[in-house]
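User: Is it possible to get a 3D structure for a protein together with its bound compound? The compound here is fe (ii) ion. I've pasted both below.
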Amino acid sequence: MGIVAVGHDRDWLEVRFEDGTPHRFLGTWLRDNITTGRHRDAGQRTFDINSLPEVTIAGASLDADTVTVTFAPEGLDATFDAAWFRLHGSTDDTGAGVTPLPTLWGAEQQGPLEFADHPTLVGDPAKLHDWLVGIRDLGFGLLENLPATPGSILEAVDLFGYLRETNYGRIFEVRDEPDPANLANTRLEIGMHTDNPYRDPVPGLQLLHCLVNESDGGDSRLADGFAVAERIRSDHPDAFELLTTHPVRFRYLDGDSADLQAYKPLIELDSRDQVTCVRYNSRSAQAFDMPGDVMADYYRAYRTLAGLLHDPGARIGFRLGPGQLMAFDNQRVLHGRSAYTTGARHLQGCYADKDSLHSWIRVLEAPR
Ligand code: FE2
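Assistant: Yes, that's possible. Here is the predicted structure of the complex:
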């Protein structure tokens, strides 16, 4: 859609498009975003707002689809085209397009689970893109035909980004151990949880890769924490208010080597009230410190959250076999497992950051 007319006053440029809709653009904003204000190769802005004078619009003219704006007091001319105005002409501040809204799910919304073939993803950028988008939008993705050998989990990380090393090392082991430091290293059932809520930031992605599974149980479970949070927001607004505004403390203490702590709400919102993180881990939650007149209501809200997160109708269950892997958004999707009594079970796990996942999706989508 082209531009048919422009006008201006001291502070505002008005652009009228072919469909008759007028859009107003602030002169200071235009001056801050002139094309020549960015480095030709790096694309980064070469000045700071602090170095700009208070500007006004001294003139504006239209030539085809290009608008030339003259700024005072500098006497500077800068051009802007129709495509640029349309790209930036939105009047809201929702940040649409940076990261799509999540696709919420429960057990009933998930069809048969599909495992992507690792060798195929390595050689097929389109299929890799689809698998990564699934992790971004649904919060998890499944993979198979990785070698069932120690360390092969890193080949899955290599599909999109970089390992996040922690005090547990680059890779951690999930198997029954004689003297466990963590309930994950037993045969006990592990309730639904997110990992490492005592870190800030919480690891954005977790990968778990099965090397051996000869157990008589040990099935994996996933639940969409964002879907549960939205259900609480709509069905229990008072509980949602408490869970999003009262921080609680999480801690991991390991002798002299680690004392990790974070003080955060169980459901975290961004400036637009979108849920950005669910922290839920009864093992590492500390005594809640909050005013006595809040505590009873908070515990009711906490029980509501816990009940919905453990509702079989909110989760999917499946069995990981050797060479299979699950990758999931650890700030959104809760994981757990059923108990087992006999048979070996050995998974390897690691963490990665979500920004590199999102980044690689955009790179794969860029025109070539
Ligand atoms: Fe875990």
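The two ends are 24 Å apart (CA to CA). The chain has two domains: 3-88, 107-365.
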